[in-house]
């Protein structure tokens, strides 16, 4: 079955420290991988995606993610966290199934950056 | 903010009411989506429209009825809802359905069913 796992409900990090939000996936074929962020009372905002090519992709707000095919992971990273990065982060995979592409979301990880 | 607007932002309704949620995208996309977001659960895809035709209906109860009159507008008609339908309903759009293109989300409608 196609699935996306975000093993941590919450990640706590001090401002200025590096952050990692984990994501693993299970799909057949080559996946297209996405990260979205959701601020309170807002919809999801696209951060970055991996389609093909360089395993390290860079996105908005200084975030980047590394695609690791052997570990089926796509962890989100940032070298230096900001308090304003505190939000809910969703990993998603787009996979072709039942004659169409479907975007499958993880359950989300809440990032809390303390001053 | 993202080119996708939703109205109303908040809605409280009784189980016998009929109401509609509206979504409009200003991005020139040809695919639109309804999602349900409940606390501590992954986003649930409800409906997909591509080129104004419904291409996905994820076993959603008939008390939810979508309508896509054109590529820019999407509605979700609600009737005789249950308290467990209380959630954040998100609309999204993309250029072409799925695949490599990211979806752009509206701010959502927070629905409370009494």
Explain this structure.
The complex is a heterodimer of chains A (115) and B (114). By secondary structure, chain A is mainly β. Chain A has strands at 3-5, 10-14, 19-21, 24-26, 32-38, 44-50, 56-58, 64-68, 73-78, 87-97, 100-105, 109-114. In chain A, the strands form three sheets. In chain A, strands 2, 5, 6, 10, 11 and 12 form a six-stranded mixed sheet that branches. A four-stranded antiparallel sheet of chain A has the order 3-9-8-7, with no helix packed on it. In chain A, strands 1-4 form a two-stranded antiparallel sheet. The model of chain A has no long low-confidence stretch (mean pLDDT 92). Chain B has no helices and eleven strands. Chain B is globular, with a radius of gyration of 13 Å. Chain B is mostly beta strands. In chain B, the strands form two sheets. In chain B, strands 2, 4, 5, 6, 9, 10 and 11 form a seven-stranded mixed sheet that branches. A four-stranded antiparallel sheet of chain B has the order 1-3-8-7, with no helix packed on it. Classes of the chains: A mainly beta (115), B mainly beta (114). The interface between A and B is medium-sized, with 24 and 25 residues.
């Amino acid at each position: 079955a196609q699935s996306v796992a975000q093993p941590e409900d919450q990640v706590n990090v001090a401002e200025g420290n590096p952050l990692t939000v984990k994501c693993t996936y299970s799909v057949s074929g080559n996946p297209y991988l996405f990260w979205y962020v959701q601020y309170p009372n807002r919809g999801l905002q696209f951060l970055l995606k991996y389609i093909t090519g360089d395993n390290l992709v860079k996105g908005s707000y200084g975030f980047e993610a590394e695609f690791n095919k052997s570990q089926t992971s796509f962890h989100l990273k940032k070298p230096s966290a900001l308090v304003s990065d505190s939000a809910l982060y969703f990993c998603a995979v787009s996979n072709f199934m039942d004659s169409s592409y479907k975007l499958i979301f993880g359950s989300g990880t809440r990032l809390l950056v303390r001053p | 903010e993202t080119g996708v607007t939703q109205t109303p932002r908040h809605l409280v309704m009784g189980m016998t009411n009929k109401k509609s949620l509206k979504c409009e995208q200003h991005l020139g996309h040809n695919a639109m989506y309804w999602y349900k977001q409940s606390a501590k659960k992954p986003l649930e895809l409800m409906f997909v429209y591509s080129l104004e035709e419904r291409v996905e209906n994820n076993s959603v109860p008939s008390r939810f009825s979508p309508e896509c009159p054109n590529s820019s507008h999407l509605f979700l008609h609600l009737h005789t809802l249950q308290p467990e339908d209380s959630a954040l309903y998100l609309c999204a759009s993309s250029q072409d359905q799925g695949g490599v293109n990211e979806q752009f989300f509206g701010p959502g409608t927070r629905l409370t069913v009494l």
